[in-house]
Design brief:
mainly alpha, about 80% helix, globular
Length: about 400
């Protein structure tokens, strides 16, 4: 690559659309993970009994995930009907307002409302950002763009842990809202993608959600795009967020906090997302990388339940491995977005990751139900195995999208 090509390459993959999308995902992850970090501290401060911390924590986490599930459809349809940039403004404004309000709550009811509204707001961030990046970059650089989005984005979890260790849980939410407002101002310089502008001028039908359900092949392609992400949110939503409870049952030596587990997990995710994005470009394949990381995730989930009696330092080190093995998140969303036409792409890119996040609700309820009868460790192992088998099945039915031309519509 000569000097001129290097400059062009750098300008393309570090364009304003890539940076704004990456910072949007950064805020997304900050908020998603912050609750897991301050869960115990915040619930105790508003009067929740120790014996009810886990149940109330799962309820509030599920409220946030329910908001993201609804918001994924809402923002996705808006993004296809009104434009990708519209999502970037509306979603971050709603998130910022909800997080600032979250800093003032004094009841679980108020907490639940704020988590639900914040979830709706955040739901548009990743899908809109990825769609904008994919439609603005040349097809041979798309993987680098989403790699940067994911790598920078997951650093939000590390910042969330850092902020939560310095400030109170209320101030941590205020800071999250402030970051969102700063990002809102930065987005004034973002322009709409040319692909989307082209279909607007042609009066193409846009954002019709039913397109995904009226064609059998298209519907199953959509469902399979969702299922390959199940192990990621099982790992984060169960193994990492509930790590203090698992560590206690496994008699881990030393104290294990959810905040530190999250920080170490997302440190691994930074490297995992970078490696998966880079390797997909190097091998010119999305599917090969997804298979590699599904294998790693299988090993990571199985190994987690063999940590009985280890020191907390080794437990945290294993959280890094879990994070790394889950680092195909950006590739998974890229594959989903690349499989569908411009007139429905934002809807797919917004709904797929948020349906996966929403799947935490049945996953956690299945886990809660199972642990009553077979204990926390066996329940985690059974639910994890089920998530992994579904993902592997979906993988083998998925198409390769690396060199696919994205300038087309669904009819």
């Amino acid at each position: 690559m000569n000097y001129i090509n290097k400059i062009k390459f750098t300008r393309e993959i570090f364009s304003i659309s890539v940076i704004v999308a990456a910072l949007g995902y950064f805020v997304d992850i900050y908020d998603l993970i912050l609750f897991g970090i301050v869960r115990v501290q915040s619930l105790k401060s508003i009067g929740v009994e120790d014996s009810d911390i886990m149940n109330q924590g799962i309820f509030l986490f599920n409220m946030q995930m329910a908001g993201m599930l609804i918001g994924g459809f809402l923002w996705g349809i808006i993004g296809d009907k009104k434009g990708r940039v519209k999502i970037l403004f509306g979603s971050i404004f709603l998130y910022s307002a909800a997080n600032i309000a979250n800093g003032f709550i004094n009841s679980t009811e108020g907490y639940a409302v704020c988590r639900f509204v914040a979830g709706i707001g955040l739901a548009g961030e990743l899908g809109a950002g990825v769609t904008l990046v994919l439609e603005n970059l040349p097809k041979d650089l798309r993987g680098y763009g989403t790699m940067i989005v994911a790598t920078i984005g997951v650093l939000g979890a590390i910042l969330a842990n850092y902020i939560a260790n310095i400030y109170s849980w209320r101030m941590s939410y205020f800071i999250g809202g402030g970051i969102g407002i700063a990002l809102l101002i930065m987005r004034m310089s973002v322009y709409e993608s040319k692909m989307y502008t082209h279909i607007v001028s042609n009066n193409t039908s846009k954002g019709n959600l039913f397109i995904l359900f009226t064609n059998k092949q298209r519907f199953f392609k959509y469902v399979k795009s969702i299922m390959i992400g199940l192990p990621i949110w099982f790992s984060v939503g169960i193994l990492i967020i509930l790590s203090p409870e698992f560590a206690k049952d496994m008699k881990v030596i030393g104290t294990v906090s959810a905040g530190n587990a999250v920080m170490f997990c997302y440190t691994g995710l930074v490297f995992g997302d970078f490696c998966s994005g880079f390797l997909s470009q190097y091998l010119q394949s999305r599917k090969k990388i997804v298979l590699l990381f599904l294998i790693l995730s299988s090993i990571a989930i199985a190994g987690y339940f063999m940590l009985s009696g280890v020191r907390s330092s080794l437990f945290y080190a294993y959280c890094v491995f879990i994070g790394f093995a889950s680092g195909y998140w950006a590739i998974f969303i890229t594959i989903a977005a690349e499989q569908f036409g411009t007139n429905i792409r934002a809807t797919v890119a917004s709904t797929v990751p948020n349906i996966i996040r929403g799947m935490v609700i049945p996953i956690t309820y299945a886990f809660q139900f199972a642990r009553i009868y077979i204990g926390i460790l066996n329940a985690g192992a059974v639910v994890g195995l089920l998530c992994m088998l579904i993902a592997i099945y979906a993988y083998y039915r998925l198409e390769e999208t690396f060199n696919k031309d994205l300038d087309y519509i669904e009819i």
